[in-house]
């Protein structure tokens, strides 16, 4: 396969059929592009768009992000998941402001010096800002496209497979005049056409160049071996009084920097019991309303959550570090998605409109 045939065909398709109105596509500057690339890691475009727009409205410059209080940063990121991304993004902004005089690098070598920025992210940002065409962007979509185009055997994560994918991605790259549209085309091809399941091969612009098209594309690549996840059993107690919903900043690694209610981790064998106010240092006058059980899958952990609301019009939570948030008076702080959902339920059973 000729590199120019693949890349030019893909670029022509992207220019006529690819996505061209995404909010970050209005920028060819590294700050805005880095924010989008970090948010898009393991997160779908439709989910990212409103977060991206709110984020840039609040932090329009690298200086404003570098100086932001962590609580406000996490509030804007709450619900997007993979919260280390937000902290690394702020660390990168602080590095640019403190060590690079506010001037963002646009080439791969410089981008790789930023905290939390890896080769794939650096290559994508460089393609859109400096049109550097020496380093291929290799994310999950690109690995899938390359594996099918060349029928590369093996599974994601295997040393031989990853090496062959890098060689393929490098060989298919165009020159700098096409690299931006080519990189976007690869993203669009992988997400819209060459999907993990049910690929739309009949609509693929490079179908005639794909070795797997006449085989079973879904066999390439083999999925990455799943890691055994640590199971954690959590009790969440949402105390609600006349002063509002009581929350505190979390210091646990999974939700660090976000706000949570009373949290207690228990052994698996104790996870079937009922929740009582005394479990969280509250007296018996707090009415208990069960909010049910749920399960949450994280990258390396599986959370089993049992939740209850504790309601008292007269009481107050005396434990150190808690603050009350009253609907209609206070803006709710950043909470993890499962916590936010349960918090709304707790407020509703307590008679508050949310």
Any overview of this molecule?
It contains 12 helices and 7 strands. With 354 residues, the protein is an alpha+beta fold. It has 2 domains: 3-138 and 158-189, Hypothetical protein, domain 2 (Endonuclease III, domain 1); 230-349, Alpha-Beta Complex (Nucleoside Triphosphate Pyrophosphohydrolase), CATH 3.90.79.10. Strands 1, 2, 3, 4, 5, 6 and 7 form a 7-stranded mixed beta sheet that branches. Strand 5 and strand 6 form a beta hairpin. The model has no long low-confidence stretch (mean pLDDT 93).
Provide the fold topology:
Layout: H1 3-17, H2 30-39, H3 45-58, H4 62-66, H5 70-77, H6 84-99, H7 108-111, H8 119-129, H9 140-150, H10 159-172, H11 179-193, E1 230-241, E2 244-249, E3 259-260, E4 262-266, E5 287-297, E6 301-312, E7 323-325, H12 337-349
Parallel strand pairs: 1-6
Antiparallel strand pairs: 1-2, 1-4, 2-3, 2-7, 5-6
Family: Belongs to the Nth/MutY family.
Cofactor: [4Fe-4S] cluster
EC number: 3.2.2.31
Query: In total, how many beta strands?
Result: 7
Strand content: 5-15%
State the low-pLDDT regions, or none.
none
Instruction: Give the class-level CATH name of the largest domain.
Output: Mainly Alpha
Biggest sheet record:
7 strands, mixed
What is the radius of gyration computed over CA atoms, rounded to a whole number of angstroms? 24 Å
Structural class: alpha+beta
CATH homologous superfamily identity of the largest domain:
Hypothetical protein, domain 2
Number of domains: 2
**With helices defined by DSSP (H or I, 4 residues minimum), what is the helix count?**
12
* Proportion of helical residues: 25-40%
Shape: elongated
Compressed to H and E, one letter per element, the order equals HHHHHHHHHHHEEEEEEEH
CATH architectural category of the largest domain? Orthogonal Bundle
Q: Span from first to last CA?
A: 58 Å
Q: Kindly report the CATH topology of the largest domain.
A: Endonuclease III, domain 1
| Mean model confidence by pLDDT | 93
Family: Belongs to the Nth/MutY family.
InterPro entries: A/G_AdeGlyc_MutY, DNA_glycosylase, Endonuclease3_FeS-loop_motif, Endouclease-III_FeS-bd_BS, HhH-GPD_domain, HhH_base_excis_C, HhH_motif, MIG/MutY
Domain HhH-GPD: 39-192
Organism: Sutterella seckii
